[in-house]
């Protein structure tokens, strides 16, 4: 899930907004890519009350200030958490823009200390949940690489449809264990995501606990109004994008956690397949790789720059290839793409998606209800797709990954036109790679995730 480029406090909702887009053009790439990759779009939103903008969510203003310019000596072992997956009816089709022992290494990733948090993944919105402890309660939040804020639904929240019509709490789909405690409100917040979901409420500074490790004075939002497509399990979002720590913007919770425990400012995420089961969703490690080995080519890693000026983890260019009966068609994609665990789809340029759809027989049909391409479950199509980043090709199977079957008996393709939004390498990609996110070095590294079953 990705927040929209501007974010305001709830107190400014309804005031007039002005925006402008700057385009910076530069290229050093091939002639094939020169048209697309030359454009970097900066969206700037202006508010009549400038002291009320950008209070909670990182936006594209100013220069990036990285945390931890000097290397910190870890005082603790990295935090390694397991993930479990909780599926939901009609799974996989609806976008919310929201430990397998089968790795090629031969075994599941071990835990570095005895304090472990359980993570949960649900399939309808493709949401993984991390257990966060706060004031004596435990809350399952959606682990989202595409956003920075962390917020929890308060028990008194109200839910609204996309056109701001009140709807029932049950229809909102928020999990049952919402926050019922008290807090000292410091300000208002409002976070709007590209998928149309919105959370707003109050901000507080709290002490939280993840995997037995506490982090003090972290900024948490307590949502009292939601426009949401929930999964019945998670009660908020745990953003693991990056933020700037200054007077106007707060670092994300994971950054505070690493800084306070003197861990390297990085995390590694490995997400499993649908078929690996509800209790077998994957693993995430804060402050290290999952196996403890350094991120080097010799250890199987391919590293590229995290190129975006915006929040989140982006790659600058990649190659897309489609394999149909051994015949591989390649295309170089020369736009930024966010690597987003909150997105059920891989989102590509329109012409690329059209070429992929043309490889299916019978033709896929658009289903407006889940906003996805529906395909006959016995249709003939590509055997696999490949994403090449930094010179390394990553194989993505189509069956049970690009094409999935919902509980309604229909099959859907997890490939979509990005439209006016940025391209996205969502969960169908992330299930087949291990990804290290290094904030200090502004690098993102990929390692093939090879299943043995």
TrEMBL record:
Superkingdom of origin: Eukaryota
Spans traversing the lipid bilayer: 53-73
GO cellular component term, pick one: fungal-type vacuole
Residue stretches making up the Peptidase A1 domain: 126-447
Keyword entries, A-Z: Membrane, Transmembrane, Transmembrane helix
InterPro entries: Aspartic_peptidase_A1, Pepsin-like_dom, PEPTIDASE_A1, Peptidase_aspartic_dom_sf
GO MF terms held by the record: aspartic-type endopeptidase activity
Keyword Nucleus: no
GO biological process: proteolysis
Family as reported in the entry's similarity comment: Belongs to the peptidase A1 family.
The protein's name in its UniProt record: Aspartic peptidase domain-containing protein
Organism: Massariosphaeria phaeospora
């Amino acid at each position: 899930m990705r927040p929209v480029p501007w974010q305001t406090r709830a107190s400014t909702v309804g005031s007039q907004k002005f925006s402008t887009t700057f385009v910076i053009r530069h290229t050093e790439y091939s002639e094939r890519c020169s048209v697309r990759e030359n454009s970097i779009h900066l969206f700037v939103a202006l508010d009549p009350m400038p002291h009320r903008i950008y209070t909670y969510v990182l936006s594209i203003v100013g220069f990036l200030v990285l945390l931890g310019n000097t290397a910190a000596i870890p005082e603790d072992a990295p935090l390694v958490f397991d993930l479990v997956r909780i599926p939901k009816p009609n799974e996989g089709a609806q976008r919310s823009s929201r430990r397998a022992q089968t790795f090629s290494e031969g075994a599941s990733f071990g835990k570095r200390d005895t304090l472990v948090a359980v993570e949960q993944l649900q399939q309808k919105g493709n949401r993984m949940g991390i257990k966060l402890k706060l004031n004596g309660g435990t809350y399952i939040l959606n682990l989202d690489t595409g956003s920075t804020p962390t917020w929890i639904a308060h028990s008194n929240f109200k839910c609204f449809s996309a056109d701001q019509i009140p709807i029932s709490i049950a229809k909102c789909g928020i999990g049952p264990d919402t926050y019922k405690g008290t807090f000292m409100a410091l300000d208002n917040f409002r976070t709007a995501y590209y998928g149309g979901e919105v959370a707003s409420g109050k901000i507080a500074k709290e002490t939280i606990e993840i995997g037995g490790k506490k982090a003090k004075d972290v900024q948490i939002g307590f949502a009292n109004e939601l426009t949401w497509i929930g999964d019945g399990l998670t009660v908020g979002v745990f953003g693991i994008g990056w933020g700037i720590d200054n007077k106007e913007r707060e670092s994300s919770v994971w950054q505070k956690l690493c800084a306070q425990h003197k861990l390297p400012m990085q995390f590694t995420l490995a997400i499993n397949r649908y078929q690996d089961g509800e209790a077998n969703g994957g693993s995430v490690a804060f402050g290290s790789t999952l196996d403890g080995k350094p991120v080097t080519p010799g250890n199987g890693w391919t590293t590229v720059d995290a190129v975006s000026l915006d929040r989140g983890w982006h790659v600058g260019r990649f190659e897309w290839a489609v394999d149909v009966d051994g015949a591989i068609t390649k295309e170089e994609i020369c736009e930024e793409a966010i690597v987003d665990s909150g997105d059920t789809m891989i989102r590509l340029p329109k012409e690329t998606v059209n070429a992929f759809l043309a490889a299916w027989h019978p033709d896929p049909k658009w289903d407006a209800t889940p906003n996805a391409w529906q395909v006959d479950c016995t249709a003939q199509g590509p055997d696999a797709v490949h994403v090449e980043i930094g010179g390394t090709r990553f194989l993505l199977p189509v069956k049970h990954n690009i094409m999935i079957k919902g509980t309604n008996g229909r099959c859907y393709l997890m490939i979509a036109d990005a439209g006016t939004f940025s391209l996205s390498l969502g969960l169908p990609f992330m299930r087949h790679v291990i990804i290290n996110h290094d904030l200090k070095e502004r690098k993102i590294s990929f390692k093939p995730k090879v299943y043995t079953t």
